[in-house]
Each structure stands twice: as C-alpha cells, then as structure tokens.
Fold this sequence. Notes:
The protein is an alpha+beta fold. It is built from 25 helices and nine strands. The strands form three sheets. Strands 3-4-9-6 form a four-stranded antiparallel beta sheet, with no helix packed on it. Helix 7 packs across helix 8, helix 8 packs antiparallel against helix 9 and helix 16 (358-368) crosses helix 19. The longest helix is centred in the middle third of the chain and has 32 residues, at 405-436. The termini are far apart. The relative contact order is 0.06.
Amino acid sequence: MFSEIFRFELRQQLKSPLFWLIAIGFAALAFAAACSDSITIGGGVGNVHRNAPFVVVQMLAVFSVLGLFLITVFVAGAALRDFSANTAELIFATPMSRGAYLAGRFAAGWLVSVLVLIAVAIGLWLGSLTPWLDPARLGPTPWHAYGWAMVAIVVPNLFFIASLLFLLATLTRSMLGTYIGVITFFVLWQIALTTLGNGNIEHQTAGALIDPFGLGALELATRYWTPSDRNTLLPQLAGAMLGNRALWVAIGTALLSATFALFKPDREGLRLLRRRKPSAVADTPAATINAIVALPRVTLRDGFGARTRQFLKLAGFDTGNVLRGVPFLVLLAFGLANLGANLAFSAEIYGTTVWPVTHLMARSMSQSYTFLLLIVLGFYAGELVWRERDGRIGEVVDAFPTPDWIPLLSKITALATVIVLFLAAGSVFCIAYQLIRGYHHLQPLLYLQYIGLDLLSFLPFAVLAVALQVLSNNKFAGYALLLAYIVATIVLAQFHLVDHLYRYGSAPAAPYSDMNGFGTFWIGTLWFRAYWLCGDVALLVLTALYWVRGATSGWHARRRVAQQRFRTPARVLLAAGLIGFVAIGVFAFHNTHRLYRFQTHDQQQQLAADYEKAYRKFVGFAQPRITDVNLNVALHPQQRRVDVDGHYTLVNKHDHPIDELLVQLPTPATRDIKIDLDFPAHTVAFADPAQGFYRYKLATALAPGASLSFAFRENLAYT
C-alpha cells in the first residue's frame, strides 16, 4: 500500500503547475546568481572562483533555507490533500496501515522538495557555463562539491523541514496552522542565532550546533580558509559539522516519529481542548411548530445609505477576522519582540549613548518590525478573498444583494485598517520604550505622520496582493505570483533599476531631522504615492470586473462577465485612474529627468570609470598648493538654495613655472547651478562639462614661489 500511495502523491505533485513554477523560478535565480555579480545569494561569491566548491556548498545551503516557506506547499499539501478534497473519511475507511499512509505521503512530499533543490543545482551548473564569464574566475566543474552539498547539507535540511511541516500539517489539519508554525520556527531560529551565533566567540560551537540548516557549522568549519582553500577544498564532515548534521537528523526523525504516534484518523486532528458535545434538544410540541408567527414588516433599500451600511458592516467583519486571527496575533507578538531586541541594541551609535528620539524609533521600526506587514498583507489577502469559498459558502454569499465593489473594497479597507493598527501598536511600543528610558519629549503627531507615510507605502502592496488572488482565481497561484513580484523587485534592485516611475509602489524617501523636520522631501514622496495610487484605482477597477461570483470559472466566461460589468461607473473610474496615472507620471518624469539630471547606478559607475581612465595621466601633474581659504556661505533652506563666495590663495611650491591649472567643478543633479571663476588671464585649453574637469592655460606662467589669487562664486538651487 505504501508504494501505491507514494506513486499517487508523487504523480499529483509533479502534475501541479506550482511545482514547475517554483522549480523553474529557483533554478533561474540560481542561474542568475552563478553568472552575474548583480545578484548575490548567501553573501555573494567574493574573491574566489564563481564555481568553487565552497560557493556551490554555500549557495545550495542558502537555497535550502529559502525553500522553507515554499516547500510548505509540497509537504503540507501532501498531508492535507485528503482533507482539502473532502475524501478523508473515505480514505480512513480503507483498510491500510497508518505507517503506509503517512510514509507514502511524507516520502512523496520530501522527494519533490529534493527535486526543487536538484533544479537549483542544475541552474548553478548552467550559470557557470555562460560565455560572458571571465575564464579566470572559473575552475573545473566541482561535481564532488555538488554531491557533498546534496548529501551533507540539502538532504538533511529538507528532511528536518519536511518532518516539521508534516507534523504541523498532520496535527493542525490546516495550511494556516502550518504556516504559523513555520513563521514561529523561523523567528525563534533568528532569536537563537542572535543570542548564540553571529560571530559570538564564547558560544561559537553552541551556535553552530543549534543552527538547523548547518550554516553556522559551515561558517565555523571554513572560517580561516584562504581563497585557495575555498577554490579546492570541501569541509570535513567531522566535529561541529558532523554533530550538527546528526543532531538535526535525529530531531527530524523524532518529529516524524511524533507524527506517526499522534496521528488520528479523523477530520478534527489533535485538539488540546476537546469540543463539548451538543446537548440533546427537547422535542418541540407540535402546537408550537404549527403556531402562526407574525413577521415584522421589512422595507428593502438599495440607495447610497444602504450600500454604505453594507460596506461598513462587511469591512468591519473582514477587519475583525484578521485582527482576531491567530497568524496576525503571532506575527504582531513576534514583531514587537523583534522590535524590542532592536531597540535594546540601539541605545548607542558608535559607542556614544543617544536619546531615543522619535525618528530613531521610526528607523528601528522600519528595520525590525514593519517588514512583517508584507507577510501579513500577502497572507491575509488570500485568506480574505478565499474565505467564503474555502468555507463552502461562496455561492450563498454571492447570492446576497450586494454590488460587486462592496466585497472587494471591504477587503482592501480591512487590509488598510490592519496596516494602521499594526503600525500604531509598534508606535505605542516605542513610546513605552521612550518613557522607560526616561525620555519624555514625546511626539505623537510625528508618529502619526510616520504611520500615514507607511500606510501609503504598504497600501499598493495590499492592492496588488488582492488583485493577484482575484485575477489568478487560485489561492496558491496568487501567493506564487506575489512571491514572484517580491523576487522581481529584489532582482531589479540588484541590477540597479531603481527608477520610481516603474518600480511598483515605490517613492523617494522622506528623511526626518530634528532641525527642519521632513523639509521638502515629503513633496516628492507624496507625488509618487499619488502616482501609484492612481494606478491602483485602475487596477482595482480591473479586479472588480473579474471578481468571481457564483460558479463562474474559466477566462472566457469571466471575460464575458467583465464585459457586462464594464458600464459607465467602471469606465469613469478606470479613465480617471489612468488619466491621473499618466498625468502625474509625465509631471514626475519632467521633474526627475528633465529639471534634474537622472543617472542610474550603472551610469554613475561608468562615469567614474571613464574619469579614471581619461584623467589618471594627470596624477603627479605639477600644480600650485592652496595655502589660504576664505569662504562666505549663505544657506537659504526655504528656497533650497546656497550661495558661496570663495577665495583661494595658490602658491607654486615647485622649482619650475606652472602654466596650466587643473580645475574640478561640481556636477550636481540639478541643472540650476551657476559657477563664475575669477583668476589671472587665461584661456580654456580643455573642457569636460559632464565630468566637471577643466584645463586652463595661464597667459603668464606662475613662477616658483609666486602666489595667485583664485576667486569663485557658486549659486546652487534645488527648485
């Protein structure tokens, strides 16, 4: 029976588009990391061969960690397949052993996870074969490193992960409960690494042993390796490395054994508190059944007031479901704990004790707390969209007399409310920390400003998460597409594609200082926020058109329904969103690319390289020394302008005359700059305005020991 269950589950997994999507996505990411410096996995390659044994082992180890959240789909999906398909009772009534049933499901889910990492290994190997790589950065293909990494790192890691996930899924009978357990384990692992790992010399062996993925043991075993060692050697499976592997394989075996021992062949699974059996209901007299009941008079309304009440009721219901949900409470608790740890280490900057001022509290929140909102929003977008259908009441709810926009906007409103409350909880926590530290200059209005800016930052992500769930019409496909978007944003950043005009939901930062607050930075931030919010309006209209009600399925049927819904209100909103998106985009492009000189990171690097190549020949070129400086600087913060009047005294300290001056002028991003130079008669021998490099030929050479007056005026403005 084991072989039949194993083959069936393996066949189902391999037929799933999600398996191929994850495998190809991971392989593509590994390929890019192996053949490009723009994408780094596990700290990058460094000064060793791109296909060195150490690099192969490290990358495969890191990918096994990255797969923690995605492999959940395979292992937990295998454990929950019968429950999600409503065939559990039929399966449990079939004469088979518990061991065969569980072992078949587990083995198939674990093997599929291994296949994903094999795809990663293939991607790494193909990346090392690309023709654009410098042959000097490559060594012979280390097949032994691939084999060692799979046997010593990947297979034990995936066995432990699969055992943990299988136990959680089997006991909770819920994908939600499994993900909560995964997140809990991940945060606890990070806390343990912070306590005992991260270079803690006193506990380096303990830190290596407690790392379930072997990264700490790998770092300890290769800590003192030279580049030559990393190019040729593999870690020995001994000492802390062997102990780590044996420990976590044993823990994985214990978890798997616990799954077999605690498994119950029923739908409810393991419950700490058993539900009470419903009490017997007394027979109702026939006279009561046949009695005539006077129904109250009901007046149906469908005006604006009625629709508003429907929207508010449903939005409040959706918000309450999120706030009372265990995942939200768990993530909130872990986020506050992580924020507390970050605040505890933020009392000093470079050894100097600092007051916990509000903008430093906000910085700590952005570093250790607010990122959890991505998990909260991504997860609950799927839960809210699919709640009724997962509960098998979708057709009933869809029959309610409510417009299509009400359930959609109620879910967006619920997610926006969650953003605000999550940020407010972190702000209250920071205020409490300030009071504990004895700092009483509280700024609640500044906290509210930060909450507003962060709301505008995370709201587009929430809209996108809901839109992907609706348009894909598959919860896990929606999650996969959202994950692909996150990976794409990381890849864009690695390739230095950072223009806010095409990076969805992004905007320039609005730094705060106690001297002048947000200054004028908030203006550009809000313009880009408005730009993306207009795009979100258009995206929400498209999402509302394809909102699924009833049994409608398939793109052809959904497109026909969308055409029927595309009436005047939808057309007006879509046109308004697109017009606002284009108009603000043109305005932003004019300000960032026309009024100012926009340069990508690659362009800046190329300019720096060109400068060095063109003007390196002037190193050691005889020039007079600046012996006296007199500057008069006038700052105009309100106008974002600075006026500088300067005077240098130049002295020729060489033993021969100097007839040329090399002058480097600033090249700021703004085009509103004017520089006037005033020094003895000269001509321009060479000018490079792009690099700001100029050579001036003096009419009269500067004799040895002679001095020269060099005055300048600079007017610079950012308007």
